Structures are given as C-alpha cells and as structure tokens.
Amino acid sequence: MTDLWQNAMDHAVALAKKAGSLVRDAVQNDMKVMLKSSSVDLVTKTDQMVEQLIIDSVKEKFPTHSFIGEESVAAGEPCVLTDNPTWIVDPVDGTTNFVHGYPFVAVSIGFAVNRKLEFGVVYSCIEDKMYTARKGKGAFCNGLLLNVSDQKEISQSIIATEFGSNRDTEVVDKIFSSMRKILCLPIHGIRGVGTAATNMCLVASGCVEAYYEIGIHCWDIAAGAIIVTEAGGVLMDVDGGPLDLMSRRVVAANNKIIAESIVKEIDAFTPLRDDAPPETKD
Ligand code: IPD
Ligand code: CA
Q1: Which one of 28, 70, 87, 88 has the lowest number of neighbouring Cβ atoms within 10 Å?
Q2: Cα of 92 from ligand 2 centre, angstroms
Q3: Same domain, yes or no: 12 and 92
Q4: The model's pTM
C-alpha cells in the first residue's frame, strides 16, 4: 500500500513538472481568455489542455482512481470526495496571474485516500519551485526541508489572503472588514501572490505566518493543505472548527495561536459547498 502511494506521488511530481513547463511556455504567447461563473472568473485553453493531460495520464496509470479537477467540474463532472483514492487537481492555480503575466502560477495536485490527504505537489512553475509533501514524511521545496515560522505573536506576523473572484458587494464588504480588523491588530503586513496553493506553500516555508480565504475551492487548497501540516503548521475552518476541504473556507497557519488570533477577526460567510448537488449551483 505504502509503495503504491509513493508511486502515485512520483507520478504527480513528473506530471506537475510537465504541466508547469507547458504553462510557462504558454505565458509567452497570446491567449484566448474565456469566462466561467463571472467576468472575473477566467479560464484559458491552457487550463483545459493541462487538466486533460493530467487526467489522461492518471487514468492510464491508475485506472481505478477517482479525479476531481477544476475544469472537469466546470464542464459538469461531479465534485464529490469518496473513500476511493482521489486526485484533486488545479491545472493552473492563479489563472488571473497567468493571463496577465504576473509571475506566480502553480500546478496543484493533491491526493486523498479515505478522504484524508496522502500527498500534495505544488509546482510554482514560473519560479521553478517544486513543493512536495507526503503524510508523515515532511514537506520540501526543491528537495529542501520546509518548516513553518515559530512566531507566536500575531503583531509580529505577515498574513496572506486574497480577494477571490466574488464581486457581490456584501461579500467584498466582509472581505475588507476582516482584512481591516486583522491589519489593525496590528500585524506587520498583508500579502497574497494570487494563487491559494502558493500562499499555502509560503506558510509552509515560514515566510508568512498564515493564509486565510473564503471562496476558494478544494482543488486550490488540497495539495497546499498537506504541505502546510507536514511543515509543522495547522489547518482550520474560519470559525475555528476542523478544516472541511469542500466548505470553501480555510485558515492555514504556523501554529494554533496565530490561527485562532485570525479566526477571531474574520467576518465569516458560507459559500455554496463544492460538493453541493449540481441543481443548487448556477
Ligand atoms: C484562484 C486563486 C486565487 C484565489 C481564488 C482561487 P484559480 O484559483 O487560487 O488566489 O483567491 O479564490 O479561485 O481560479 O486561479 O485556479
Ligand atoms: Ca485554476
């Protein structure tokens, strides 16, 4: 069993490298941008092509495994996590960055068995940084061991977050109100590189103390989640409860003290779950 997952992880790393090099090449070219749920939810042919490449390769090598991918779900595939070994994939995390040539774009591949993450691979392809973690075996960037920051003072911390792609004014107001409260704790600063997966890897690397967001999807955070915990960090819901991969809410932090300091300030809201029945989605 153990060897089988190692095999799958090696395959994920090879796929992420291949996918990342296609993404990196595509940044140089003109691209046709299409819209998904709104005028700020973008997708390109590269997102779709890279996801298909990953699905085809996984299906060939691991025919019994299940697959949840951002673009497959957008095309109507179900988004349900079962006990079956499941690949949870974002082919291009940071599509808006990709479209604008903003240099943080990641390929994110998480893998869960019995609904628990076994490994995660995030390839920040413009920077050429390969982040990996396997359950119980630590987290690495380009082969170097990662450790979260040991900071316990929120006032000495940098916190990462994002604005996401929901422009409803009530949602935007809550995002700003949470950021305002956190900034005024005060903290050293707020950052965000435009990809959830990379933000989580920055928590794992110890250069930001935490990352939180409401509105992300399971494919944005699955790989990053195990990279954070294997680097010594913690995950929770924005209400302080356990992380639910399908709930579209996440806090990833270096430790519980910092996570709970943020949780206290977040004006939480509840987006439609990733695994909500299709008829409830627009
Ligand atoms: C998005 C990025 C972004 C986050 C959004 C995600 P995508 O993923 O991770 O940082 O703010 O919530 O949807 O659409 O670029 O794959
Ligand atoms: Ca994406």
Answers
A1: 28
A2: 4
A3: yes
A4: 0.97
